[in-house]
Amino acid sequence: MAVSLHQRRSSPSAWLTFKSAAWLGWQMESNWTEPWLFLLYSIVRPLAGVGIVVFMYLAVSTAAGIYSPDKLAFVFVGTTFFMFVGQELYGISQAVLDDREHYRTLKYVYIAPSSIYIYLFARGLAKVAETAISASVTLVIGGLLLHISYSSFNPVLLVVALVLGLLGIATFGIMLAGITLLTARHGFQMGESVAAIFFLLGGVVFPIHILPVWVQDVAYLMPVTYWIEAMRRSLIGDAGQVDSTLSTMSTPMLLLAIVGTTIVFFLLSIFVFRRFDEAARRKGRIDITTSY
Amino acid sequence: MGEPAVRTEGLGRDFRRKLKGADRKGKGDRFEVTRALDDVTLTIDKGELFGVLGPNGAGKTTLIKILCTLLLPSRGRAFVAGHDVTEDVPQVRQKINMVSGGETSGYGIMKVRENLWFFSQLYGVPTEEANYRIDTLGEILGLTPKFDVRVSRISTGERQKMNLIRGFVSDPEVLFLDEPTLGLDVNAAREVRRFVANWVREKRENTGLLTTHYMAEADEMCDRVAIIDRGRIVACAPPHELKKLVQKDVIFTLRVGAPAEGSLDFVKAVAGVASWSASRSIDGKTAELKLILEDEATIADLMSELAARKVEVLSLNKTTPTLEDVFVKLVGRGLGAEDIVGPQAEAKE
Amino acid sequence: MSARTVDREHPFASFARGPAGERLHKGRVGTFLGAWKARAYIRIIGSNRELSWIFFETVLPLLSIIAYLYIYRYLGAPDRFVSFVVLGGAMVAFWLSVLWGIANHIFWEKQSGNLELYFVAPVSPLALMLGMATGSLVSTTTRASASVIAGVLLFGATFNGEGVLPSLAVLGVTLGAIYFLGMMFASLFLMYGREGEHLAHSMQEPVFFAAGFYYPLNTLPLAVQVAGSFIPLTIGLDAMRQLLVPGTVGFLPLGLEAVILVLMFFLFAAGARQSVRFMEHLAKREGRLTLRWQ
After folding, report:
1. From A27, A155, A227, B108, which residue has the greatest number of CB atoms within 10 Å?
2. Cβ of A291 and B107 within 8 Å?
């Protein structure tokens, strides 16, 4: 079938860009030659990450002689779902570094007529897919070993909140990707460093109300805060509701808060990315290498 | 004569690739073996600039990597500056350096001078001497103005000049140049060739091994050229001798104004003209003479004769056999045929 | 810049030579030290040219440590747990430097084409890795110090003043041991290529967990304590806690831990030397030294 000139000149559809970039990201992430490494990375590592917080709890409980299953469930579930935050931020921002310094393809992606936002978002999704496996295993094992009850499991809320949350996190990922255009490759994992902001402010491992008031105000502006709360509710229901502010919000309000804050940060992410993109192109940094 | 700079005996290198899934269907073996080098026996004397000419995937880079101690041979032996490349690795490394074309090495965030100083330290060059060498070579190559610029901000040609200086700053006895003019413009490539040739000629203890798939480069620079194809050396001789393998005479083509009277038959009477042919243009105003001469000096006599008979010479062309003609004759295809592209090229070579 | 005048006519002949006309070089030890110094220079100057690491590598990770401190506050932990988190947070900086600044960085050196130039040069890659390690000390020490300062000023972490000097000595030996361990990992990373990044990630949280970075080691099951003790960090951190945090019950007696650390130092130093040789041989045999986009 002949392709008309008009068809040849139009940009690829968003879906095509998304599909191609997601496929590329998955190819990179799923290229495991050693099964033991896959197990180590996808299961042992996340378990260890959650284990740190669990054993912090156990250390204190042993020292003080007080055991609070609700607190344990709170920190365990929060930390498990927090994996998505770190990995998605890492996946999106690392795509810039990988393409710029490792594969040297960033310039080609840039000059293509596809949407760079969709490309970066889709590249980061491979990490999310991996994390889903890790989180699932962690929840099962944790549930068994720590006797955490999932009797309040709400699959609809889980799926809806997960999708909304990933979009919310992606907005920060895009901002970080923009910033990465201007920074050198310092060797550490920038996405995971930035995730520390949410680890502190997102109500992941302690209720936000114990933070200073001015810090709480910042925390309640972020989609991650509401998302973590929603994910907890989808698994452990009321048992996870220890935050004095969030526990007063109904589930629909919570989801609305995720949507509202995500929209705000989405607009901000476009603005931030464009500014950094312009600066990177002005300074000629799209195709540099910065390793030292 | 002494020990040659480079000597190889039956050198061979195979690369194995594990076959998985669909690749393995119908094949008994779990591995696919690519023979990148096969029975390569070479001797390169000190003071020689030796060229290895071949298409992409021929094995040129594999050969250099073995000689630079980056790769172990699968068969055979190799010696550089009298030392075995597998047994006497530290001794070999003291005496060599390597410059590759299209290189991206170096630290983008560091300045050119800093990069050069850094690599000089890997060879134990005292800092003061290293700075002198960097300054000297930078001035000759015209890179001095860029010494305080970050490597990420210099052009491709400048980066290659930096890499070239890096290769020479250690004052090597043997320098391996793997397609050093790849990606450079005409002027930059010319500068690089002149630089390398001067290094070999300045002191006849320096030896260069140059791999290239640019025939003109090998022809212009090298004392001897080995033609390699599919891992095997198919010929090795000075360029002019290689061209003699091709039974192709040197043809002089003259375009002249057609004489008003008479023909150009007088040409055959000029001593030294082995054979000739003439054809007139359609309008009859010009003629084309094709001559094979016994001796190139005959052309001067011919020009005198034409001038005496008032025949105007409009143009003179000389057609000689090229190394591509040699390659086609020896290998059966052109130098650009069947190029292998993509990441596997590195392993295949 | 050189003080000598450039000889354009005979540039190569003007290069200085030794008394017997031999090529000039500093000898094996001099070259090793020079390469060490040069690589450290690259690391230090490079990090100073791009100061964004101060924010991403120091300020932001501080937030993680503050989060852990708040966890203990939320759980009502005794004061000494605050000191545990502060020390653990400081050690995180060094461990990440081992993983990403040395071990995994070798992979990036290969990608950029520098690794093959290292191996063509007549100097051990150990010199270069030591350069990376010592060069990283500036940034990792900054990060570690920020952790300690924040913990002391914001959360009232307290340390035993008399234990500061001996714990710095313990830290020095521990760092030596883990940096040599990192060089051993570099061999693995060279072989695994791109997957080395997964390997480096896999050595983060499991090590933080098994080494008891944020809680007393004896909180963990005995099997995990024993497994974790093979990492110098575990023993080093435990020894430092015994010296700096009053009331800490150590995994092993302090003297024994000090001896183990010293033994680990020399063991991993020898291991690093051997593994670099083995790595080089294997990589040369399989052609991986120069294989990119792996």
Report:
1. A227
2. yes
Whether residue B293 sits in one domain with residue B206: no
* Contact between residue B249 and residue B296 where contact means Cβ atoms under 8 Å apart: no
**pLDDT, mean of residues B24-37:** 74
* Residue A60 near chain C (CB below 8 Å): yes
Q: pTM for this structure?
A: 0.81
- A61 vs A50: CA distance, rounded Å: 17
Chains B & C: contacts with CB separation below 8 Å: 152
Calculate the average pLDDT of chain B.
Answer: 85
Q: What is the mean pLDDT of residues C250-256?
A: 93
Residues recorded for chain C: 294
CA distance C115 to C133: 16
What residues form DSSP beta bridges with B319?
A: B251
Asked whether residue B184 is assigned to any structural domain, the reply reads yes
Q: What is the CATH number of the domain that holds B218?
A: 3.40.50.300
Q: Residue A135: pLDDT above 80?
A: yes
Residues B256 and B139 in one domain: no
pLDDT at B346 over 50: no
Chain A, nearest residue to C77 by Cα: A60
**Looking at the 3D structure of chain B, how many domains does it have?**
2
Q: Which of B19, B152, B155, B159 to probe the A interface (max A CBs under 10 A)?
A: B152
Q: Is the dihedral of CA B124, B126, B131, B134 positive or negative?
A: negative
The alpha carbon of residue C96 is apart from the nearest alpha carbon of chain B, in Å, by: 22
Closest by Cβ to A292, choosing from C46, C61, C208: C46
| Same structural domain, B308 and B261 | yes
Q: What is the pLDDT of residue C289?
A: 65
The residue range of the domain holding B214 is: 6-245+324-348
Percent of chain A with pLDDT over 70: 89
**Closest residue, chain B, to C41 (C-alpha):** B118
Residues B64 and B155 both lie in one domain: yes
Q: Which residues of B229-240 are buried (b: 16+ CB within 10 A; e: fewer)?
A: bbbbbbbbeebe
Distance, in Å, from the CA atom of B76 to the CA atom of B63, rounded to the nearest integer, reads: 12
pLDDT at A291: 63
A277: Cα separation from own chain's centroid = 22
ipTM value for the complex: 0.86
User: What's the mean pLDDT when you consider all of chain A?
Assistant: 85
In-domain check, residue B1: no
Residue identified by tokens 């992941």 is: A204
Whether residues C24 and B126 touch (CB distance < 8 A) is answered with yes
Q: Residue A33: is its pLDDT beyond 70?
A: no
pLDDT tens profile A41-50: 888 999 999 9
In terms of domains, do B224 and B240 share one? yes
The one-letter amino acid at C53: W
If asked whether residues B86 and B188 sit together in one domain, one would say yes
Which has more confidence, A225 or B340? A225
Test the C interface: residue of A33, A55, A224 with most C CBs within 10 Å? A55
pLDDT band at residue C40 using 50, 70 and 90 as cut-offs: very high
Q: Which two tokens stand for residue C285?
A: 């045999």
Query: Residue holding tokens 């997601």?
Result: A22
Rg value, chain B, Cα: 25
Higher per-residue pLDDT: A244 or B172: B172
Reading the block at residue B166, the tokens are: 């890096």
Helix (H, G, I), strand (E, B) or coil at B146: helix
Helices (H), B226-322: 239-244, 298-308
pLDDT in tens, A82-113: 999 999 998 888 888 888 877 788 888 887 77
- What is the reported pLDDT for B62? 92
Residues B195 and B167 in one domain: yes
Task: Give the neighbours of chain B: at least 3 Cβ pairs within 8 Å.
Answer: A, C
B128 and B271 share one domain: no
Contact B131, C1 (CB under 8 A): yes
How far, CA to CA in Å, does B95 sit from each of A122, B121, B328, C140? 50, 15, 36, 38
